[in-house]
Amino acid sequence: MEYYAGEYDVVVIGTGHAGCEAALAAARMGCSTLVLTLNMENVAFMPCNPAVGGPAKGHLVREIDALGGEMGINTDHTNIQVRMLNTGKGPAVHALRAQADKKLYQIRMKKVLENQELLDLKQALVERVLVSDDGVIGVETRFGAVFKAKAVVITTGTFLRGRIIIGDVSYSGGPNGQEPSVGLADSLRGLGLELGRFKTGTPPRVHRKSVDFSKMIIQPGDEKPHRFSFMTKDLNREQVPCWLTYTSEETHRVIRDNLHRSPLYSGKIEGVGPRYCPSIEDKVVRFADKPSHQIFLEPEGRDTEEMYVQGFSTSLPEDVQIKMLRSIPGLEHVEMMRTGYAIEYDILSPTQLKLSLETKKVKGLFSAGQINGTSGYEEAAAQGIIAGINAALFVKQKEPLILKRSDAYIGVLIDDLVTKGTNEPYRIMTSRAEYRLLLRQDNADLRLTEMGFRAGLVKEDRQKAFEQKYKLVEQEKGRLAEVTVAPDEEVQQILTAKDSSEIKQNTSLIDLLKRPEITYEDLKKMDKNFPTLPEDVVEQVEVQVQYEGYIKRQLEQVEKFQRLENKKIPDWVSYEDIRGLSTEAKQKLERLKPLSVGQASRISGVSPADISVLLVYMEQKRRGCPQED
Amino acid sequence: MVDDTIAAISTPIGAAGIGIVRLSGKEALPIAEKVFSSFKHKSLTNTRNHSLLYGHILDDTGKVIDEVLVSVMRGPHSFTAEDVVEINCHGGIVAVRKTLEIVLKAGARPADPGEFSKRAFLNGRIDLAQAESIIDLINAKTEKSLKVAVNQLEGMLSGEIKEISTEMLELMAHIEAGIDFPEHDIEEISRHKIEQKSGEILARIEHMLALADTGKVFREGLRTVIIGKPNVGKSSLLNALLKEKRAIVTDIPGTTRDVIEEIVSIRGIPLKLVDTAGIRETEDVVEKIGVEKTKEVFAESDLVLFMVDASTGLTAEDRALFPLVKDRNSLVIVNKTDVTQEVNVSEIETHFRGEDIIEMSLLYGRGLDRLEKRIEEMVYAGLSSSQEEIVVSNVRHKDALERALRSIKDVLSAMRAGLPTDCMAIDLRTAWETLGEITGESVSEDLVDQIFSRFCIGK
Ligand SMILES: Nc1nc2c(ncn2[C@@H]2O[C@H](COP(=O)(O)OP(=O)(O)OP(=O)(O)O)[C@@H](O)[C@H]2O)c(=O)[nH]1
Ligand SMILES: [Mg+2]
Fold first, then answer.
1. Average model confidence (pLDDT) across chain A
2. Is B243 exposed, middle or buried (0-12, 13-18, 19+ CB in 10 A)?
3. What is the mean pLDDT of residues A160-188?
4. Mean of pLDDT over chain B
5. Do A90 and B419 make contact, defined as CB atoms within 8 angstroms?
6. What is the pTM of this model?
7. Which of residues 104-133 of B touch A (CB under 8 A)?
8. Structural domains in chain B?
9. Ligand 1 center to B325 CA (angstroms)
């Protein structure tokens, strides 16, 4: 029997990484918010590897943090190892990656949800999204509870009609032995939304005590660990190492001998899997000439003996998995604790979404995370915070927050999804960003804090800290431009020692810093009155000065495309009626309904000539019916 | 994007001899200033609106390319409502093309079809009634009659560009895979390797540009073949156009046994002229080889000059050739009209347009002028993608190559300056995207595909 259970501004379905951010964002922006989880034990659960960050993903985490999200802070407080990757490849691609204590991560995040003002956390399985002619009006649970809502955010991850596959065994289920969500999938289809089917997988977990680490290479964390959040201060706790080993010839033989039992090759799996994280059997088949593949053993936490076998995702039968594991140096006597599996699930084709992550079909209905066809905790959280913000803005009847490709990786991620769609679980990569030198992880605060503040998510303390930091940055840059050093012997010596050419006349410190071989540290030795500044200020000064030329060039590129990005396509445009558009362009534009001419130009199949025709048509209409402009 | 400066050759059909290079956009004046030297040492940027300046177009080495008349029309009082400069060239098509190349080098971008009109419309200079015709211009195809840029060569050019672009993509994928998946056992590409690869790419682009610069592409010219039955006067025509006695001319049918090739310039248009052995079924084996070759040359030609003999009238051999020739860009030459005119022109007119039939007497040099004029008209018609502007596609190629070259040079100088990989990657990407404007591959999806197909990346 259905019954009225309450009324909220925003209801979020799901407490994965997208759901947590969405719920917190909406509540923090002053909306009464309800977040529903299938299982209280699974708030902010990490079903796959126990790590957050890496190239582009770490960038996302910093951006979420700058907007006032929780993922960065939560990781900082629960990590067990931190590494900055790509340090030799330039500031744009420096990437922070942390191993998280999975349990702690969940416990802390749940506590944050529980203690968030205006936010209720409840356990319930949502069966239906309720709509009226005007859009979404609430949700109904399995036990008949009807929660009314002005906006609903769906973040159900891989639970929609989830199916687990291990060898020839398969059953309906969500990750980690939970139940799938079947009714909701039907309800969404009933709303006219189009569903697709994807596949992903996870490797087995093994017992630490059964591993012989003497045959593996230790992977320690950084000596001076960085933090994700711009707000986290000190971070000095003991770090736990990871371990590296390699598959052997025997491993590959076992795999090849058992390929016929793989659901991938027997046709049991229909979902499309990602190319970037193929299962180990995929790797052995596709890269047949590679004699071995690397395998990392990662601890799942401080208070557990379970270890994650990274690089070993598989859906081969359980007995084969054990044989495969035991063929790896160091794992000869390993005890497998959890079996690897593949999971198939329904997704909402993301081209049905607006850039705000609201569905085009149902007003007030938003979706975020893996359900939109992405993979990864960071990608999910990034969409979650945007969906949460925009659900809140929707409730407040304000314009949505849309991040551009030149603003953030979040903008790249959402624009890619919404404009191009995806035919495999989408993973963010630095090479997907065209303005990479602008979208650095070190300046995420500079790019986004202000926007988060205006949206009402960033609170005063963060805004103040941010302003203070950049005041110092500007001051120091000004100082470096003013202070000059003379070409005396001491200075020349310092320069020669760094393989830098000698100076001929008085030179400003800023000009010296522009030389790639000279660091901010080096300047200290030349200037007696050198101030001691916070590390993040020094980092900004250094990057901004050294890469000024490149940064300027990218800014020019951004500006070049800005006019098209700013040119909005009005709702009344009917592509069918535009004479001169190619048929392919007509179909794609009609289906995707891009917001701006810039977005339209990124749709594959829409040529520059089509864009010209569109511009002429819009001008034609504008002059013909000026009242509509 | 919207307010950058565009340039194109803009010449009305039939207005042979002169050609106009038109520039429009914010930088139109400064760009024109860079390449123009006025006889009276006047500055373009300071000149009065709608005034005409006389002077030279110079290339970047200071060499004079053409004597020109330049007019300046500042926005909004111009066709596009932007600053517009028109350079009137007099030195024929080659000079016009060269001038276009020079302004592109100086910072303009080749205009898209219909782009001048599009800008004029978007800036409110053209009234609503004409919007439809602008859309037609935008969609106008370049496939009208003749193409000046020789198809096959253009194919080679874009084939080569495609290869270079693939090489760049591979290099990028290698760099990017290392960046995006630093903990996978992907063999990191060394700086030395990046330098070496970029150097190779640089050399290839330079080589291509050098080829284009020595004018080889243009010297190769429009492939034009003269065909007709033996003894009709084909070799005589070749000699007449060459203005020298290159081919042997006799009154014995079958004199020309092999294919003779010569480059001639007709009103500034380069033609690769081919004289052939007369086409007929023949017993003579040596001649037969020549005939086989004739058919081959015929198949590859851009323009066919089909000769018939006025003194004999149309024969079965001529009539057999009509269907072959009429679907090609072709002109029918009725030669030896000085003897008698036995050819029934109206019969030919059932297959060809009147203006494409030229009566001639090579003995007296009659009709040659009309032939040259008609060839020129056809070339101009083929060049123009619309009534108002001409987009020469391999000028685009060259322009893209020049810009890609600059970006690759930036990669190398970033390398030498010791800048990190992410900086070099930016320039490499720019170079690749520039070539992508030609090959049509510009979406980052290509890069992602390349990374996943080449490197083993797993979880
Ligand atoms: N009366 C007259 N004779 C001409 C004219 N043009 C060419 N001839 C003569 O016709 C004969 C054949 O000329 P060619 O140029 O050798 O003819 P062709 O078509 O190359 O002949 P093959 O190479 O044998 O196929 C020569 O004797 C020329 O002098 C013309 O306009 N009038
Ligand atoms: Mg001959």
1. 93
2. exposed
3. 89
4. 79
5. yes
6. 0.80
7. 112-115, 118, 121-122, 128, 131-132
8. 6-127 (3.30.1360.120), 141-211+391-440 (1.20.120.430), 220-379 (3.40.50.300)
9. 21
